[in-house]
Design brief:
This protein is an alpha+beta fold. The chain folds into three domains: 5-157, Beta-Lactamase (2-Layer Sandwich); 217-300, Helix Hairpins; 305-457, Histidine kinase-like ATPase, C-terminal domain (Heat Shock Protein 90). Helices cover 50% and strands 20% of the residues. The protein is built from ten helices and 14 strands. It has helices at residues 5-52, 67-76, 151-186, 188-199, 217-266, 271-300, 315-325, 327-332, 351-368, 426-436, and strands spanning 55-58, 61-64, 83-89, 94-97, 118-122, 125-136, 139-149, 311-314, 336-340, 346-349, 374-382, 385-392, 440-446, 450-457. The strands form four sheets. The chain has a five-stranded antiparallel sheet. Strands 9-11-12-14-13 form a five-stranded mixed sheet, covered by helices on one side. Helix 1 runs antiparallel to helix 3 (151-186), helix 5 packs antiparallel against helix 6 and helix 9 (351-368) runs antiparallel to helix 10. It is rod-shaped, with a radius of gyration of 51 Å.
């Protein structure tokens, strides 16, 4: 059934209310029915016991005493709900009856037993009847039959049933439209959210959904959507900035290659000049290759969560392998590497990303350390994690730059130290890989005193 949201709310509310109303109406009818018949039965029992005392037993006959007075009272008074009284012997034979029965008589039902109220008829009219035994000196003499008309009771119950049956659908119809109206007003903020969200596009991410006045569920929904839009906008801005920075990083070596080649073709040169220019172009191509490879690594991180290859990794061995690859840079800067840690510094992780983190951190320490200085690498256990610390005595990072060092293409003091080559992608890769391996990073640095990177590897990735 294809209903609108407000119609579904109204329908569900109506169905729920219909169930409750049906139960309530049923309880009302049952209670009224029970009370009405209980009052009728109480009156019958009272009349039966009252008239039992007015019976005279003589030999085999049973007669009402003061019957003439009873007849006179009936002529004098108007009886709204008359009581019919009759006396029968043990065999059910009529012995005497009240004057208001006239030619009629109550039927004795031997199968009904005594002191039991039941429905029957008198002159084709519904009555309620009870049969009370008459006992004298322990001997059953007969029965007194008492009856009252239940036409009034039936009429009241019928009117009640008719009223409830008419009221039930009427209330539900009114309730449906009232609920639909209220639901329509309640979802106005939802319509505002939908309309505003429809206007927001890639080129119009600044618009936000106005918050409702009441801090209810819709307020929370609107706040969540606005926060989502903030995150999308920031992601788009980072994407634009990333694209611009990547273009700039790639444009620079391409411009160098183009300029070099244009100079070469202007006139003939010596073989040595050609060789020097070609070597320069190759160096720039290598630089482009490094940038492209790092950009590809960053692009793969979004899907890398499903591609982790977990196995045991010994951080001491992994560090030795990184140092071996960086041996030429270490020797050219005459650096001393101090490596301390337990032999069994192992964890369960992805060796590729562990190696990626260690190589970028250590190569940064080598790049920014002055000649002849030392780099300390220390492994310890702390709070159930393997702590990996790399400290150098290099240039250091100003406090204002620390929050930005993991941003792509950010380089602290790039203009102050143009001789230090780099593209600002290394620490971005470290950050992404660390998040993938559930590894925390802390950085402490003082300009002129060096930088310390602390990595907290979990013993196993969950």
């Amino acid at each position: 059934m294809n209903l609108s949201y407000k119609n579904r709310i109204a329908l569900y509310y109506m169905l729920a209310t219909a169930s409750v109303m049906g139960l309530v109406f049923l309880v009302i009818y049952v209670v009224v029915h029970t009370v009405a018949y209980q009052e009728l039965d109480n009156d019958l029992a009272y009349e039966a016991h009252k008239h039992t005392k007015e019976i005279r037993l003589a030999n085999d006959s049973m007669l009402f005493i003061n019957k003439l007075e009873w007849m006179e009272r009936e002529h004098r008074e108007v009886q709204v709900n008359p009581v019919f009284v009759q006396v029968v012997n043990v065999e059910g034979k009529l012995m005497d009856k009240s004057p208001n029965l006239k030619e009629g008589a109550l039927v004795f039902h031997s199968e009904k037993g005594t002191d039991m109220h039941f429905d029957t008829q008198l002159n084709q009219q519904a009555i309620r009847q009870v049969q009370i035994p008459i006992v004298q000196q322990g001997e059953l003499k007969g029965y007194i039959l008492t009856a009252m008309s239940q036409e009034g009771t039936i009429a009241v119950l019928g009117s009640l049933k008719q009223t409830l049956c008419l009221l039930f659908p009427s209330v539900l119809v009114v309730l449906f439209f009232v609920t639909r109206l209220l639901a329509g007003r309640s979802i106005v903020p939802v319509k505002v959210i939908t309309e505003t969200a429809g206007r927001i596009t890639r080129n119009n991410l600044n618009e936000r959904i106005p918050l409702p006045k009441n801090k209810d569920e819709l307020y929370s929904l609107t706040s969540s959507i606005n926060e989502l839009l903030d995150r999308i906008q920031h992601a788009m801005e980072r994407e634009k900035q990333f694209t611009a920075d990547a273009s700039h990083q790639l444009r620079t070596p391409l411009a160098v290659i183009k300029g070099t080649l244009e100079v070469l073709i202007r006139k003939s040169r010596s073989p040595e000049a050609y060789e020097s220019s070609i070597r320069s172009c190759i160096a720039e191509i290598d630089r482009i290759s490094v940038i492209v490879n790092q950009l590809l690594i960053l692009a793969r991180f979004d899907q890398a969560k499903h591609q982790l290859v977990l196995r045991e990794v010994n951080l001491l061995i992994a560090t030795d392998e990184v140092l071996l690859r960086l041996k030429q840079a270490i020797e050219s800067r005459q650096l001393k590497i101090n490596l301390h840690g337990p032999q069994q510094a192992s964890l369960i992780s992805d060796p590729y990303y562990v190696d990626l983190i260690l190589e970028n951190i250590i190569s940064n320490a080598i790049k920014y350390s002055p000649k002849g200085s030392s780099i300390d690498i220390q492994l310890t256990q702390e709070a159930g994690r393997l702590k990996y610390v790399v400290s150098d005595a290099g240039l250091g990072i100003p406090a204002r730059d620390l929050p930005h060092i993991f941003n792509p293409f950010f380089r602290s003091g790039e203009l102050e130290h143009p001789h230090i080559k780099g593209n600002g992608l290394g620490l971005s890769i470290v950050k992404k890989a660390a998040e993938l391996l559930q590894t925390d990073i802390q950085v402490r640095s003082q300009p002129g005193q060096g930088t310390t990177f602390s990595l907290y590897f979990p013993p196993e990735i969950s």
